[in-house]
Amino acid sequence: MASVTDSGAAAPDEQVKPLRADAQRNYDKLVSAARDAFRSNGAEASLDDIAKRAGVGPGTLYRHFPTRDDLIDAVMRDWTLQVDADSEEIVRSGLPAGEALTAWFGRFVENVGIYNGAAAKLTAAMDDESSPIYRKCQVLVGANDKVIAHVASLGALRDGVESRQVMRLVSGVASVVDQAGLEPAQSEPMLRIIVDGILREPDAS
User: Fold this and answer.
1) Residue 6 counted as domain residue
2) Which pTM was predicted?
3) What would the pLDDT profile of 78-105 be if each residue is shown by its tens digit?
4) What is the 3-state secondary structure (H, E, C) of the chain?
5) Is residue 5 domain-resident?
């Protein structure tokens, strides 16, 4: 699997030099196409295929992303923004605790499955400061902390439940989904067991 670089520009609030409107459209199409290709075929997905999916030529791809790692890094940067936005949406949704956790864990599984084989890589990097994607993983850690703290503020969380342990459980489900070739939606029964286990009372919603 290709390595994933981290230039230090991983946080959602990073500053990126604005592109011309047409160049930004091509950039966005390439990142979106790469995300889909990596999810289906792993981080070694064909770059020519990604360019075709985006409706641009290989030259346009390489102008924006001189190396594969540059493209992976851009997908990961887009990923951090989505992870943070997802957690904010859940916290502000007003959903009951059980529904909020189920929705968040579902998005967690989907986000961790950013590309085939990513679940195990991301899970390992969460506690490994030497990993090139450690800083990006901390966005996921912080997003999960935010949602778990929100549920705790509702008085719905069992005593002694720690966000990091919950994250490891959900990451385990994500790894099963990834390795078994399941769709993210098929994780819901497994995630529901975790939800029922960490709430003060089983949520019937």
Assistant:
1) no
2) 0.76
3) 889 999 999 999 999 999 999 999 999 9
4) CCCCCCCCCCCCCCCCCCCCHHHHHHHHHHHHHHHHHHHHHCCCCCHHHHHHHHCCCHHHHHHHCCCHHHHHHHHHHHHHHHHHHHHHHHHHCCCCHHHHHHHHHHHHHHHHCCCCCHHHHHHHHCCCCCCCCHHHHHHHHHHHHHHHHHHHHCCCECCCCCHHHHHHHHHHHHHHHHHHCCCHHHHHHHHHHHHHHHECCCCCC
5) no
